Amino acid sequence: MMPFKMRRQLLTQKTMKLLEVHEDPRSGCQLFKIHELDPFCKIDRVVYREKSQSGWFKEISPEDYFQKVRKADVGSSDCLIKR
Hints:
Blueprint: H1 4-11, E1 15-23, E2 30-38, E3 43-51, E4 57-60, H2 62-75, E5 81-82
Antiparallel strand pairs: 1-2, 1-5, 2-3, 3-4
């Protein structure tokens, strides 16, 4: 039997599920739509992040995400991952 503290840690792990990935061919940045779930902190949300060419991630607003996705999809056929 697992100790209580270890069981609690397993039950309260933060999970992230990648929902969509788009890439802007002009700028080379990638746009991510991610579902975050953290039962311990009571977080259940969808976050939008952008990865620059240099590798830095930053959280962006939903409005910025959808505006950039529209621009990125004009040059390409569709998103890389969609769930």
